[in-house]
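Issue 218. Parser rejects a valid record. Input:
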Amino acid sequence: MSVSDLGVSVPPPVPQPVPPPGEPRRGRNPLVLVVLAVVISGMLYFGFHQARRTTGGRPITGAKIAPDFTLESLDGKNVKLSDLRGKAVLLNFWATWCGPCKIEMPWFVELQNEYGSQGLQIVGVAMDDSGKDEIAQFAKEMGVNYPVLLGKEAVGDEYGGVPALPESFFISRDGKIVDKIIGLRGKADIEESVRKALSARPSANPVASAATVSTQPQN
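Output the parser choked on:
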């Protein structure tokens, strides 16, 4: 005996909506979720580092005496910026996680070789969360031939907060900032600023003799 034999009417089945041709069916693609999570994590990581570098900084303008500091080098010596008076200094703030920093570091090696005899001293300041040994290993792998110092946030703040990495300051023989570059620029631009620092006329005040600084990173 069927249902119809009992006199009970059965409603017809409700048709299910069918998506138009070419329209994907709704659902979450696991690959999309993974990519989205990676992007968000990267943004948070980058934002964290940027926030750390922009707190408490004061703008740095040209023709100003470079703020003095004393920082430890990779070979354990204390290096004071003002002890380098008499040399033109390229002061470079960088970090091991900074991709553009890796691009320009070989240029610094070449510039130190080319202009060191003319009085150029490049100094790297590692604004890094990595340990000393890791920074030293990185510098060794990059063939760095100039002193690398372990940076501190307070020093970065003195130089305007270091809003982006890399950031370089070009300091004349009498300790004045004559130029700066924020972010990655071409080698020609960096070399032009180096020449500017080397050729800047010192003030009438006598300058201290430049100290000898170790240029070999710690093994």
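Fixed in the parser; the record now loads. Residues 91 and 167 are 8 Å apart (CA to CA).
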